[in-house]
Amino acid sequence: MAGPIAQFEIKALGAEAGASLSEMPFHTFTNSSLWMLITVAAVSIFMIVGMNRRELVPGPWQSLAESVYEFISGMIKDNVGDEGRKFFPFIFTLFMFVFFGNLLGLIPYSFTFTSHIIATFAMGAFVVTGVTLVGLFRHGFKFFGLFVPHGVPAYMIPVMVPIELISYLSRPVSLAVRLCANMVAGHMLLKVFAGFVAALGLFGILPLGMVVVLTGFEVLVAFLQAYVFTILTCLYLNDSIHLH
Amino acid sequence: MANIKNTLLRMTAATAVVMPAAAQAAGGMPQLDPTSYPSQIFWLAVSFAILFLVMWKVALPRVGETLANRQQKLTGDLEKAEQLKADAERVQEDLDKALADARADAHAVLAKAADEIAQAQQKRMDAFEADMASQAEEAEKRISAAREQAMASVREVATEVAASVVEKLSGTAADAKALDKALDAAKDA
């Protein structure tokens, strides 16, 4: 039986078993790539087919698509304000990509690309870099005032600025680790309990119940982590736009 | 008891099966294997870019448009309802006014009619009274004429009676002058 780690293995699709990725080109199509594209397709179908009829009185599906739209739009309005509106497509994409990635990863035998630190870090680094550029573009040199907290006595500034700088630089890391660690922990836990089901025979009904409960819990985590990732992006963006 | 013991044993066995696998894999977490990083980053960028473009250019405008349309429709409908309500109120006001006017008109017509009737009545009453008065006067005139005539004929009759009485009693024709004198005296008496 496969261990709880096996589910995270990245395999090139179409290559013979045991082939090492290190000898393949950067665009090698893997199970991770496949599930990224499936996520893209799922989100697109959810948003486009759901809105196909554009009814005045929406059906259940259209209503769901509309409420996600309004959820993210409200989040930006509350946390960034009107200036955040032009970032809506990006933040919406970010939320849906992470949320559907997490959710589709819960399907047995699927792959959770958000459980890989490099993927989450790439997203986190992109967000923080982008947000920093937005801040620099809007405020120029004044943007660095972000690292000097208000009301700090002058002699504390040499201490505070490095602390603020480190906390700023750790933003992508914390974004990446939070999402990835949650996904890894949840999936490993599910796998361990699933392993007990097989090993215990008839008594496996007990861990099976646990797996059911955990799966429900993981659906919640899938949403929650996508939400946290998105709302932190909004808060960082707000910092850049409004400088405290 | 035996069952529980059995279960515990099985659980231990299961842990023994699962745990070494975990321990062995911990050294080689696939997440920490950098050979997969280029492919992951590349496909992440590709998928995210595709999704971003699809959302930005296709999906989100549709939702936004639908929501805006609905908002517009709602506002329009509300405005229309407001307008219709105002119209209905105005119609009600007109109706109330028309009713009040009609009532006032009816009152006026009734009052006029009552007035006319009363006037006509009065006229007829007056005419009738005048007629009655003239008739009564005429009757009185006739009565007095009749009385005078009667009175005149009474004298004639009295003269005749007296003459015949005198003639019968005395056997001679009565002196007309004396008779007249006597009658005048009797009349005055």
Note down, in words, how this protein is organized:
The complex is a heterodimer of chains A (244) and B (189). With 244 residues, chain A is mainly alpha-helical. Chain A has one domain (29-242). Chain A has helices at residues 31-48, 60-79, 88-104, 117-139, 157-200, 205-242. Chain A is globular and about 70 Å long. Chain B is built from three helices and no strands. By secondary structure, chain B is an all-alpha fold. Chain B is rod-shaped and about 195 Å long.
Helix-strand sequence of chain B: HHH
Radius of gyration of chain A: 21 Å
Structure annotation, total helices of chain B? 3
Q: Report the count of strand segments of chain A.
A: 0
The share of residues in helices of chain B is over 70%
Q: What shape does the CA trace of chain B take?
A: rod-shaped
Overall mean confidence score, pLDDT of chain A? 92
Structural class of chain B: mainly alpha
Q: How many H/I helices of chain A?
A: 6
In total, how many beta strands of chain B? 0
Main β-sheet description of chain A: none
Write the layout of secondary structure elements.
The complex is a heterodimer of chains A (244) and B (189).
Chain A: H1 31-48, H2 60-79, H3 88-104, H4 117-139, H5 157-200, H6 205-242
Helix pairs in contact in A: 1-3, 2-3, 3-6, 4-5, 4-6, 5-6
Chain B: H1 2-27, H2 37-170, H3 176-188
Helix pairs in contact in B: 2-3
